Amino acid sequence: MSSTVLAQPALAQEIEYAQPAPPASGGSDAIVVVATGLPLSIDSTGQPVSVVDLDEIESIQGPDLTRVLSRLPGVTQSREGGPGSLTGVRVRGGEADDLLVLIDGVRVNDASDIGNQFDFGNLLAGNVERIELLRGSNSVVWGSDAISGVMNVVTRIDNGVAGSLEYGSDDTKYATLSAGTVQGPLAAGLAGSYYDTDGFSRAASGTEDDGFRQWQLTGRARYDLTPELAIVANGRFANGRTEFDGFPAPDYVLADTEDYSRTRQYSGRTGLHYATDLLTLDAGYALSDTRRRYYDAAQDEAFQYAYKGRSERAELFGRITPAGQVALDFGADREWTRFDTTFGDDAKANTTSGHALLGWYGEAASVAAGVRYDDHSRFGDEWSFGANGTVNLVSDVRLRASYGEGFKAPSLYQLFSDYGNPDVQPETSRAYDIGIEKGSRGGPLFIALSAFRRDSRNLIGFASCFGITDGLCATRPYGYYDNTSRARAEGFEVELAASPSATLQTGASYSYVKAVDRTPDGFTEGNDLGRRPRHALAAWIDWQTPWLLSLGADARLVGDSYENINNTTELDGFATVDLRASLPFGPVEAFGRIENLFDSGYQTAAGYATAGRSAYAGIRFRM
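^ thats the sequence. predicted structure below, dont judge the formating
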């Protein structure tokens, strides 16, 4: 079997744990884990997968990871203020909590959040080496939360020492430092970062700055006990303080306040990796913990309330290649989740799961289909199915298609908080995708066209108890969470990338996404879902001049959208342009950028400000 189809043991080890710079971003030889849970080349799956590597992340510059993600098709984001503010990433018209987020393979969606959403405001780009994004439902492999997509963020291992220092607008300071070794059986590294900014008022109507400060530490290691067996481990710790604005009396509208929060996150995984030509096994124990504490400096007692979410997981991924081009991917896991809050009793749940995916991976075509079973201690069981295939039409052109089912278990907050409903059922989805691709994203020419549709049922929303006193409203007078609606998201994506010479690279992506409410006879039937712009375009260019100076530019155009499903508050579309430059001096490189060059005023969440024209400069080194 070709090593470009199913990664052989040596290649799998190199890609997963050791190699500082994986294969070219999005290339047909790129190896990803988001498709099956174990390494698989992109051109062997019919599912749409994008990869962003370290070179591209560093060329974009800066700590804001959403500036990197905005290049990917189908991706939009909303942020409630400046750096450190609640930041949601939406894929193909899904809600922000419909995206399953992994950091080094560890599920990090916040178990204390209302919908288990991961807040990208707490994840900075300086410690990131690689991003994999699968667009579409994939609960067969990943289970709950994989409704709109799966993202795996890989933290960096440097074979040596690397670092950066940056200063810019709003008295912003950002520093990173990483060190590692890739020698013989050992690959290990640590990376740390510190960020501090005065920021600006979160409230668009405000004048008081809202700052953000965070330090972060990540680490990954692998030690080969034998050529087939290795010990693997990774971890991440982040601690931050964020100032924000609230809704003070007597008007109860967004305005300057003295509120702030402290967020502490830690996650990690340890396990064993075994790989031969016949059998691959990856077994481990993973932990993710998020703690959020909220304060009001204007009160005598500043502390107000707190949330804590914790997830522990014992998991196994495996692959058997019994003969030729046939492979059976399988897995099982047991997850324990816990939710604590100042306002009520602790809540717990557990899930037991198993899945299998049978595939035939040929040189000219591949096809795979699978099934998953989940047994949740609170709502019962759920079955998920999926299938995908790809065919090489000519040497560098392939046709791909996929069908995937997704489900999202109700969060512990939706089940057991003061607004909880123990009878709420999981959200479910069915996603269809077809596409054609020429070349690879890191090659001389890349063209990709995709069309998709996703139908979602049993969406969980808030049911008001206004005027109702019986049923659950007898004990929850303000309302409760329930399965209230349906939705459909459909559209198409276009990707272009070209490298006409060794010194010039260009690219663009355009997405049309129509995400609407489909609840029969509902008050909002046919309305656009909130914060879902139908049009999004990103374009970029990078040029290496003959004088070693590198110049680059990014443009982002986003169409109109609405703040909520009632479509009563419109969010105007906007366009931003960023300029970048860098110049090497031996092992040191000076760099700088201007973000939002034309000082565009816009909002991605109603009432919340965004940054105007900003400038930053710094140096980075690698030894």
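The mean pLDDT is 92.
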